[in-house]
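Input.
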Amino acid sequence: MLAVALSACTPDPATEAYLNGEQKAYTSADFTVVEIPAAERGEPVDFGGVTENGDDFSSDEIRGRVAVVNFWYAGCGPCRAEAKDLESVWQQHQADDVAFVGINIYDQPDQAKAFADTYGITYPSLMDADTGEAKLAFAKVTPIQAPPTTLVLDKQGRVAARIIGPIKSPSILSALVKTALEEKA
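Output.
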């Protein structure tokens, strides 16, 4: 039923409610970007799980690459609002060997696939609703507040930047990715 709701909404009620300021339960009221100097970054984050397509994933697969990790779920209006911007930055930086991984904290695979189809998301998402293991791995090194929260990992797998709330513009996330790419490994 959610798949039908996701694909049939024009305009999308959850996104509209968020954009009109009626829906604040999904995210911090404040948009915050925090860049973490290399000398102050914690340990690399080891995380993994199963994607919406049933594939096993481990952070070892992306170690050595800059990565963007986005915490989200399908019913989150701000997550819907930022989806096209996340995909845009992913498309922009694929040639730079940047990895993108979503971490879906509430949904089951069918809901995540419907969201990806509706919003044109082509990078994988870990299904973390049943275990919470990926969220817990990150919570040990950085605050993970209400979704959406987006992290940029450096090539060592350490959190280099954190965006709390929906990204305001693809250029903000792209600039954080470029900064991480320019760092010496």
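Residues 77-93 form the longest helix (17 residues).
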